Amino acid sequence: MISRRRALTAGAAGVVATGAGGLFVAVRDKPEPPSPPSLNADKRVLWRNWSGVEHAYPAARLAPSSEDAVADALKTAVAPVRVVGAGHSFTGLVPTSGALMTLDNLYGVARWEGDEAVVWAGTRLGALGPALAERGRAMANLPDINKQSLGGCLGTATHGTGKALKAIHGDVTALRLATVSGEILDCDANQNADVFQAAKVSLGALGVITQARLATTANRRLHRHVWVEPLEETLAKAEGRWSRHRNFEFYAVPFTDLAASITHDETDAPATPRAASTDDAFLEVLKQLRNLTRFSTLLRKAAAKALLGSAEPEEAIDEGWKLLSTERPVRFNEMEFHLPVATHLAALKEVVAAIEAERPDVFFPIEVRRIAADEAWLSPFQGGPRGSIAVHCHYKDEYDFLFSLIQPILRKHGGRPHWGKLHSLKAADLAALYPDWNAFLDVRRRLDPEGRLLNPYLKALFGV
Ligand SMILES: Cc1cc2nc3c(=O)[nH]c(=O)nc-3n(C[C@H](O)[C@H](O)[C@H](O)COP(=O)(O)OP(=O)(O)OC[C@H]3O[C@@H](n4cnc5c(N)ncnc54)[C@H](O)[C@@H]3O)c2cc1C
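Above: inputs. Below: predicted complex with flavin-adenine dinucleotide.
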């Protein structure tokens, strides 16, 4: 593995050397973007999200250790009251000048009901894996990383990939919701059923989910396979792979004509744990190629094929919770839309073509996934399965083109935005995309008539 990483970075250095030939010099990395002050004029402490694109100076910070304390705080704390999980969303869902509440003191598996786990919403996915595995159980699927809190995942409809696998909220069979009136509502398909369908994906706008009951699966070992091939081949085989493999996703790499594919399938073979990821080395090569050859797409593609086209495949066998998520040390900003399956790959081709025509500064791979349908009112997967397309920008790079160039393509193909990732849709756009939009707004008004939970971002989103 180390030699593979060395080979990749040495390869990039090779590009520098070849390019040098007296003609090119390595382009210096961009400076860090400016950081807001750690204290504001009122001596309030800075809060920032993971990518650094959102920040706030909350008037109060709350970390309740019981459900009753959560409900009390929702009733009495300075508004807007916003709950934060791991701060991994890219949109302005969390920032508040009022009270910022974390559920970090409410974590772990509260109890089991048969094979369903009742989990405190502050639990991070990375901690939930081993806790479920102790009982031989697992979450059916995981997102690309496991740093998120369970509450945060339900807040934005966080998902992984797999034609038959739902987003995380699709496996929630009941939840408890603390509201601004100080009540705690038990919600499932029979009790408070409308609140249940609204709260499963609710942007922290109905109250605070304190616990959720999760359906689990047997904790099986999975075989992970990662390989690079021509993008054209991936596109031709993608539908078949989604049908055949438990999990399939791919990353289309702009300016290379290549794609990296990842499959996971159940196996009884003995574990052969995964080596440390080479993803950051791969990204570094792509960044260097961008820096050195952006003036010539032809040269960039030729160099990329030479360096990356023959990358060795990766194989590993281990329990799913150890394999399905990855470490992402390189920060980025991201837009992701969820499209009808029929337009999924056509939209992707347009996105790649648009980037290659207009944005030579882009080097991050584009992530492409499939997600099964569910019925939550604000689920992007409500009403049918969806294919997702996610475009990433290095945190030092300009990302306005996501709105001006990429979003129009994804919208034209019927996409719904990921609630936690960059988009500029507002109430009227969203009402046209979600049949239950008004039902959700009714429940929101009933539970929070004075808008104690609404920050400016949510007011604009809901048209309040
Ligand atoms: C590196 C990286 C990789 C990612 N990979 C994926 C991926 O593979 N798939 C995917 O779908 N997304 C992915 N995301 C997005 C991420 O999963 C979502 O934005 C998720 O909401 C973040 O969880 P969090 O705990 O950080 O929540 P936060 O960002 O802190 O909060 C998100 C929303 O949930 C609300 N919320 C939090 N807790 C509660 C609660 N207890 N009750 C009610 N509302 C609550 C908040 O108020 C807010 O509205 C990724 C993000 C990053 C930075």
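The pocket of flavin-adenine dinucleotide is lined by residues 50, 82-89, 93-94, 103, 121, 143-145, 148-149, 151-153, 155-156, 158-159, 203-204, 208-209, 328, 418, 420 (CB under 6 Å).
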